[in-house]
Amino acid sequence: MLNTKMIGNRIAEARKNKNISQAQLAQFLFISPQAVGKWERGESSPDIITFNRLSEILDVDLNYFSENFQSADDETASKTPVNSTSHSEQTAEEVGTHQRQVRINLTAVNLQESDFAGVVLHKGKFKASPLCGADFAGADLTGSSFEVSNAREANFDGANVTDCIFSITDLTDASFRKSVLVRTDFNKSSLPGTKFTDVKLTDVKLTMIDLRKTIFENCIFNGVDFKYSDLRGMRFDGHTFIDVQFDKSALNDVSFTGATLRNVSFRLPFSVTNKSYRAFKTVCFDGAMMDKLTYAGLKGLWVVDLSKVIVI
C-alpha cells in the first residue's frame, strides 16, 4: 500500500526546492491546485503516469517517491539547483572551430518576460517553464525544446527555430514574424492568436493542434504536415502549398481561394463516410492554381467543386 503521507512530503519538498508554487505545478500537470494540495497533505496520490511527469518537472529520479529511496543529501530533493545545470546536462558541443556552447537546461525555471533577444542557444531545454512575454527576437534556438511550458505572448520574431520542438506548450498570442521554421515540430500545443507573418514553413509538423484562431499571413507552406489538426473555418487565401499533407484533419469551411497548391494531399478524417464527404464539400478552391496530380486527387473525391480551379 502506498504511503501517501511520505509521498506528499516528498512532492512538497521537491516543489519548494524548485521554487514552484502549488498553482504552478498544477498548471504544468493540467490539474487543479486543490489536487496538488491533497497529494501534499497525504489525502490522495498521483497515478503512475503523473509520477513520471512529476519526476521530469521536479527534476528528480522516479525512485525518489519510493520509501526505499536514499539520498546522499536528503535536504535537497532536486537533482539540480534552480538557476544552474547539472554536470550531465553541461555536455559541451563544438560550435564552429574555436567556440563551444554548453547545453543549457532551463527546466521549471520562472522565465516570465525574460530577455533572450539575439542569444545563441542550441539544444536548450525549456521544460515546465513559465515563459509568458519572454523575448526571443532574433535568437538562434536551433534544436531547442519547449515542453509543458507557458509561452503566452512570447516573441519569436526573426528567431531561428530550426529543429525545435513545441510540445504541450501554450503559445497563445505568440508571434513568429519572419522566423526561420525548418523541421519545427508543434505537438499538442495551444496556438490561438499565434501569428505567423512573412514566414516560410519548411518540413514543419503540426500534430493535434487547434488552428482555428491561429493567424497565417503571407506564408509559404513547403513540406508541411497537418496531422489530426482542427482547421475549420481557416482562410488560406493566396498562400502557397508545396508537398503538403492534410492528414485526417478537420477542414470544414476552409478557404483556399487564389492559393497555389503543388503536390498537395488530402486524407479525410473518416474513411469513406457521408460525414467526411459532407465536411469536405464545404472547402472552397475558387481561383486556386494547382498541378495535375493535386487536381486529380481532389477530383477523385467527387464532392469538391473544382469548376473555378486553374490547372498548371
In brief, what are we looking at here?
It is built from 6 helices and 19 strands.
Give an overview in words.
The protein has 312 residues and is α/β, with parallel strands linked by helices. The radius of gyration is 23 Å and the shape is elongated. The chain has an 8-stranded parallel sheet. Helix 2 packs across helix 3. Helices cover 18% and strands 18% of the residues. About 9% of the residues have low confidence. The protein has a domain of 62 residues: lambda repressor-like DNA-binding domains (434 Repressor (Amino-terminal Domain)), CATH 1.10.260.40.
Using brief descriptors, characterize the structure shown:
single chain; 312 residues; alpha/beta; 434 Repressor (Amino-terminal Domain); eight-stranded parallel sheet; seven-stranded parallel sheet; 18% strand; elongated
Q: What strand order characterises the main sheet?
A: 3-4-5-7-10-13-15-17
- What's the N-to-C terminus distance? 69 Å
Low-confidence stretches: 72-98
CATH superfamily of the domain at 4-65: lambda repressor-like DNA-binding domains
The biggest beta sheet is recorded as: 8 strands, parallel
Globular, elongated, flat, extended or rod-shaped: what is the shape?
elongated
Percentage of residues in helical conformation: 10-25%
Q: Return the string of H and E elements.
A: HHHHEEEEEEEEEEEEEEEEEHEHE
Q: Might you state the CATH topology name of the domain at 4-65?
A: 434 Repressor (Amino-terminal Domain)
Question: Which band does the percent of strand residues land in?
Answer: 15-25%
Which structural class do the helices and strands define? alpha/beta
CATH class term of the domain at 4-65? Mainly Alpha
Please provide the count of β strands.
19
Q: Kindly state the mean pLDDT as a whole number?
A: 85
